[in-house]
Amino acid sequence: MTESVLYGGSSTARVRVHHLQQAKERGERWAMLTAYDTYAAAVFEEAGIPVMLVGDSAGNVVLGHTSTVPVTVEDMLLLTKAVTRSTSRSLIVADLPFGSYESGPQQAFDTAVRMMKEGGAQAVKLEGGVRVAPQIELLVSSGIPVMAHIGFTPQSEHALGGFRVQGRGAGAEQLLADAHAAQDAGAFAVVLEMVPAGIAGQVTKELAIPTIGIGAGADCDAQVLVWPDMAGLNGGRVPKFVKKYADLRGELLRAAQEYATEVRDGSFPGREHSFD
Ligand SMILES: Nc1nc(=O)c2c([nH]1)NC[C@@H]1CN(c3ccc(C(=O)N[C@@H](CCC(=O)O)C(=O)O)cc3)CN21
Ligand SMILES: CC(C)C(=O)C(=O)O
Ligand SMILES: [Mg+2]
Q1: For a Cys staple, 120 with which of 84, 178, 215, 251, CB 3.0–4.6 Å?
Q2: Is 252 part of a structural domain of the chain?
Q3: What's the rounded Cα separation, in Å, for the pair 58 and 80?
Q4: Which of 33, 60, 156 to mutate to test the pocket of ligand 1 (most atoms within 8 A of CB)?
């Protein structure tokens, strides 16, 4: 399969999801990135990123919260609209934020419909496996493609006791149960977050749907990173699973400092930036 098929022109979400399935069958890996704004999303689409996640990690990296827990449906809609306005080929998946789907399938449906109708998303993601299988079933049977997210689920950080690797020892059984529950309920893919590489490899082998790893080793079908982490825009601590591919913070700092210096010393604006 060529990249142009995985990253096809004007196709429906169903066709794009089918291409991800075919990629798994052919052993072709692919990359997902988060996106929260219109410029970054356009750049990632141009880079050939086939799937973008409007992640509730926006709580941390855009909105300045210390967790994803305070993120609202309105927050997610604003960001999802910005991303879907500048993209046409990538599959755009919107995270359902904490408190917007857990109480039952009807709540999940109501939130997912808003993400699609108002936000323009083509799929939604929710955290959990066994626990949210009824939600996944209703969404999928209603025509909404669902991505599941298991292992370390940040919205449950308080219940999980902090940022911890999940699925070690006895936890492996729960992880496998969650993975199968998500697949059986109809999820088209599943994110595995902070799971030992060996277990993630086993889940990837057992499942027919693609696994997308973040801190889950090299044997997943795909990978995802939070973009300000991988681009070095994040000035704070980043998780161990992050690789920095750029130093955007350093570059932006330099630009802002140079601009301020030139305004102070009168070298900006020049004649070429002024009108006669
Ligand atoms: N900037 C950012 N990057 C992310 O990957 C991310 C977010 N925000 N917000 C939502 C969730 C939360 N995630 C997180 C947040 C922190 C750790 C973390 O601190 N990990 C440590 C400890 C691991 C351990 O002790 O086992 C690490 O060093 O990886 C991991 C995942 C992943 N997501
Ligand atoms: C880390 C990814 C998978 C996520 O859920 C997010 O960015 O919110
Ligand atoms: Mg998330």
Answers
A1: 84
A2: no
A3: 11
A4: 60
